[in-house]
Design goal:
The chain is an alpha+beta fold and about 300 residues long. The protein has helices at about 20-30, 90-100, 165-175, 230-240, 300-305, and strands spanning about 10-15, 30-40, 40-50, 60-65, 80-85, 105-110, 115-120, 125-130, 155-160, 180-185, 185-190, 200-205, 220-225, 250, 255-260, 265-275. The protein has a single domain (about 10-305), classed as 2,3-Dihydroxybiphenyl 1,2-Dioxygenase, domain 1, CATH 3.10.180.
Length: about 300
């Protein structure tokens, strides 16, 4: 198999109140809690993984909910929007659902020929629901309130805001295998042909905008998908050749990863498909149990006493 980037693997963001985050994403948006674990570097903080039924790459949105954290500020050197793919004709349903749940949103508009609806989560994280022109056959997670006619399919795109996009675009095209598809005003759309979905990165060039502040309601990093560890290390070599700092391979239990900061300031991760989320829970029980990294298992009772209650 070719060494290639297979679109977006997952996106990790910062939240405040854990229960509010859990309720919003499982109830209002209807995502599945695929994994309930803790931050590798801060075991007294949850790490939530939301996605489709199987936790497929391209559907996984993760959060570090740090209780009491202040609000972030969108700006340059950040991922400023997360786009989900939704079925054609579903935006009226979503607009009504957001209204019923007192969610801040904008009415549907059109971008690159696709209808989309913008909203903010409880911490101010910005999302877009997009009726993609390319039919999306990825599996959906259904709830009693959100059926297949309206449920999300996984990621459609991310948006990175930058003062000057040239260096970031060079990483996308020269290393990660993306190509420029089209530009509208100051927004340039890059796409990979390696996968059909979760394949889009938009770069918004805003020369005069201030640098964003990373805190509650901010994206911490975006992870790009590779098939396996051999491919992961291939890309590590490519990034090292560019003179960029990149971590050694890290075992995140559910995937192996590398981290580097692209020249525009956004933290990028490369993450493998293997071993997946069923390594420590059967499919039907995903997200049902608190799963701890091995180094924290001996402190389970203490950690469980500190973590906020979700019920």
């Amino acid at each position: 198999m070719k060494n290639e980037i297979l679109g977006i693997h997952h996106i990790t963001a910062i939240a405040g109140n854990a229960k509010k985050n859990y309720d919003f994403y499982t109830r209002v948006l209807g995502l599945r809690l695929v994994k309930k674990t803790v931050n590798f570097d801060d075991p007294n903080t949850y790490h939530f993984y939301y996605g489709d039924e199987h936790g497929n790459p391209g559907s996984i949105l993760t959060f570090f909910p740090w209780e009491g954290i202040g609000a972030g500020r969108r700006g340059t050197r950040q991922v400023t929007e997360i786009g989900y793919s939704v079925p054609a004709g579903s935006l009226d349903f979503w607009q009504k659902r957001l209204e019923e749940n007192n969610v801040i949103y904008n009415k549907p508009a059109v971008k690159f020929g696709e209808r989309y609806l913008t909203f903010l989560d409880p911490d101010g994280l910005k999302f877009e629901l997009t009726e993609a022109q390319t039919p999306d056959s990825r599996p959906q997670w259904e709830t009693a309130a959100i059926t297949k006619a309206h449920a999300t399919h996984g990621f459609h795109h991310i948006t990175i805001t930058t003062n000057k996009m040239e260096a970031t675009a060079a990483i996308l095209t020269g290393v990660l295998g993306y190509r420029l598809l089209t530009t509208e005003v100051n927004r340039s759309r890059f796409i990979t042909d390696a996968v059909a979905h979760a394949a889009i990165v938009d770069l918004v060039e805003a020369p005069g905008e201030t640098i964003g502040h990373l805190a509650g309601g901010s994206v911490h990093h975006v992870a790009f998908r590779v098939k396996d560890e051999a491919t992961l290390m291939y890309f590590r070599d490519q990034i090292v050749k560019l003179g960029l700092n990149i971590t050694e391979k890290i075992d995140r239990n559910y995937f192996y990863s590398l981290y580097f900061r692209e020249p525009g300031g956004v933290l990028f991760e490369l993450a493998t498909d293997n071993p997946g989320f069923t390594i420590d829970e059967p499919l039907e029980e995903l997200g049902s149990h608190l799963k701890l990294p091995a180094q924290y298992e001996s402190n389970r009772t203490i950690i469980e006493g500190i973590l906020p209650k979700l019920d």
